[in-house]
Design goal:
The protein has helices spanning 2-23, 27-51, 63-87, 93-116, 126-148, 156-166, 178-190, 194-220, 222-234, 236-241, 248-266, 273-285, 294-304, 316-337, 341-346, 348-351, 359-386, 409-429, 447-455, 463-492, 510-528, 541-549, 573-576, 594-597, 637-642, and strands spanning 533-536, 587-591, 608-609, 613-619, 622-633. It has 645 residues and is mainly alpha-helical. Strands 1, 2, 3, 4 and 5 form a five-stranded mixed β-sheet that branches. α3 (63-87) runs antiparallel to α4 (93-116) and α3 runs parallel beside α5. The longest helix is centred in the C-terminal third of the chain and has 30 residues, at 463-492.
């Protein structure tokens, strides 16, 4: 009761302080932040001195840790406060303010009740504390992403995949069609806005979390399963796949589902699990081709494990492969109709690219995806299990297993399904450039071992294992705080300073860029009497952002055509917009670097070219970047034919 009263008093202080400071001219950002800080100080004083005072019967141990936890709760509450303010923007101001203050009070109350009071190390098992932390982290990350889905501007990749959905098809040059289909469903339900584009990513994260929980419960027991949820909620790659709509979102969900059903089939002996394997691999192939790397991993496991070899003589694996092939058949058909363009793009074109040793970049990328603690744990957890921190084996409570897994089988499953895909990317990095996100899904196989290591209380654990365990709490806490504050900065900027970086590095003013581009296009339309084409002079970033943001009421979406019309590669824009069908129209060319816009070869594609101009991108009275543009008049038919891809 006292804790609840302390929270109510803090909420009242927050509201009064905000109103007073705003009236005195502190500004919205200053009043919000000052009111929150005063309320937090009030909450802290009331909780520690009144609601839970120090007594002889109840001393206040671990004060530094307790203060640190309260600061963490306050920072996470502040992040949610910003999310409410951003998510409810457009509603009456007083309603938004009260909602933000109420959300902050609830978050602070729950955080204090669960993590700060009682003391930081209450009696009970380590597994119970980690379970509570997992529930809190999952709740925070799910709500935070939902609040910001529609408030952070689209990244260029997301805008590009949204353009996929506008040109709905069964295949595309650089990716299979699943991302386009999901965006089409989302925008059909919620409109052509950021929320509609991203809602499917948020739901895909839910599927990833569900299958990761079930897989970890089977391999390592119930306590570790909750910790796996915490890892999926807080590690950078998995947090991002639930927020940013790229092919990695459905791929990761399908990867998690495939691992779960493979474990049920190969370790649990369930015949019907193979149907889940076929379904998940088929849908995964519609998302991204890399899920095919699970097939050789499964084959290797079946060869090495005596109990799994029986599946070579049964029809289920072959029926699963047939099901996956049927689901994947639209992509095969598209490639047959387009000269195997997508298959070549993702295979021979990458192999034939410039030779470059990029293994260090691959390792640094993994650090970014998993954090340093996550990378060390992922690479060591399976081997540490072999030395005494062994997974508990499949969950016998389900009643579906045909017998417990033999000693070593769960560990071998984890190792094979991690190292086989990883070895492919590592080998590729010896001679070619790799991408940051490539290895993200494969670490799902090792998360059960990592989670089991976190909750382990083995008295024989080495000092190295205990150091890794101790590193997890600060690592995950820092991640969650950075996500919350980072999203707030992307939407609102730093108080009084604006964005920390400018276009095109971060998505902070694409909407303003699009509006200014639309104004330029309108002037050209009024001058020439024709609807101008919008041409971004990079591979696809500018063209995609202009397709989403660069329009007005007089010019509907569809004028951003990519640089393929001026003889340069532009991915799918070269398929969607044939230059010979656009001849005779004026165009506005856009670039973020002067050398692109001043390319002398561009002049040959137009009867006349205007001068190069520079324009600042202004948002909320602050300059958030600049771009260059020039007008090209009358794209000739002959030049268009030369530019045909």
């Amino acid at each position: 009761m006292r804790l609840a009263l302390a929270g109510l008093v803090g909420m009242l202080v927050d509201f009064v302080a905000f109103q007073a400071l705003f009236f005195l001219g502190a500004g919205l950002d200053g009043a919000q932040l000052s009111g929150f800080c005063l309320a937090s100080l009030c909450n802290h004083a009331l909780i520690t001195r009144w609601a839970f005072p120090e007594t002889a019967e109840r001393p206040r141990p671990h004060r530094i840790e307790r203060e640190t936890l309260f600061l963490l709760v306050c920072l996470l509450s502040l992040a949610l406060r910003g999310g409410v303010l951003a998510g409810l923007a457009g509603l009456p101001a007083q309603r938004v303010i009260m909602s933000a203050i109420g959300a902050t009070a609830i978050a602070t109350f729950l955080g204090s009740a669960c993590f700060v009071i009682p003391p930081a190390n209450p009696p009970g098992s380590s597994a119970a504390r980690w379970r509570l932390a997992a529930i809190g982290a999952v709740g925070f990350s799910v709500v935070l992403r939902l609040l910001f889905l529609g408030r952070v501007e689209l990244m260029p990749q997301e805008a590009y995949y949204w353009d996929y959905a506008r040109h709905l098809d069964i295949g595309y040059l650089d990716h299979p069609p699943m991302v386009a289909w999901l965006i089409w469903i989302g925008t059909s339900l919620f409109g052509n806005n950021e929320f509609g584009v991203r809602i499917a990513a948020w739901l895909c994260w839910g599927a990833t979390a569900f299958f990761s929980f079930r897989l970890t419960r089977n391999l390592c027991g119930g306590p570790a399963a909750f910790v796996s949820l915490l890892l999926v909620a807080a590690l950078p790659f998995y947090f991002a796949t639930g927020l940013v709509m790229t092919p990695d979102a459905p791929l990761t969900a399908c990867w998690a589902g495939t691992l779960y059903f493979l474990e049920r089939a190969l370790l649990g002996g369930e015949r019907r699990a193979w149907w889940g394997v076929g379904l998940c691999i088929g849908l995964g192939l519609l998302s991204k081709y890399t899920i095919a790397l699970l097939a050789p991993a499964a084959l290797l496991f079946m060869l090495l494990e005596p109990r799994a070899r029986v599946w070579f003589r049964r029809p289920e694996p072959y029926l699963a492969a047939a099901l996956a092939l049927v689901l994947f058949s639209p992509v095969i058909l598209w490639n047959m109709e387009h000269g195997l363009a997508s298959f070549a793009f993702q295979s021979t074109r990458r192999i034939e690219g410039a030779v470059r040793f990029s293994l260090p970049e691959l390792l640094l990328g993994i650090v970014g995806l998993l954090t340093p603690t996550g990378l060390v744990a992922a690479l060591t957890a399976p081997w540490l299990h072999a030395r005494g921190v062994r997974p508990a084996g499949p969950d016998q409570g389900s009643g579906r297993d045909k017998g417990p897994a033999r000693p070593g089988e769960p560990r071998r499953f984890i190792i094979i399904f991690t190292l086989v895909p990883l070895s492919v990317f590592a080998a590729f990095s010896l001679f070619h450039m790799t991408r940051l996100n490539w290895t993200g899904p494969l670490w799902l196989a090792v998360l059960p071992a990592v989670a089991a290591g976190i909750v382990s209380t083995d008295e024989h654990a080495s000092a190295w294992q205990r150091r890794i365990q101790r590193a997890w709490a600060p690592t995950l806490s820092i991640c969650l705080v950075l996500y919350g504050l980072g999203l707030n900065v992307l939407v609102a900027g730093l108080p009084g300073l604006g964005a920390v970086a400018s276009l095109p590095k971060v998505p902070v003013a694409w909407d303003e860029f699009g509006r200014q581009a639309a104004d330029i296009a309108r002037d050209v339309r009024e001058t020439t009497g024709q609807e101008p084409l919008l041409i971004g002079l990079d591979a696809y970033n500018i063209a995609s952002e202009l397709a989403f943001y660069g329009h007005d009421d007089a010019a509907p979406r569809g004028n951003s055509v990519g640089r393929s019309v001026v003889g340069q590669p532009s991915l799918m824009y070269g398929f969607w917009y044939r230059p010979d069908t656009l001849a005779g129209r004026p165009a506005v060319l856009f670039a973020f670097t002067r050398h692109q816009i001043e390319n002398p070869l561009l002049a040959g594609f137009f009867s006349d070219s205007g001068e190069v101009r520079r324009q600042d991108v202004v948002k909320n009275g602050r300059v958030e970047g600049h771009f260059f543009y020039r007008v090209g008049y009358t794209l000739p038919r002959s030049a268009a034919q030369v530019a045909t891809p």
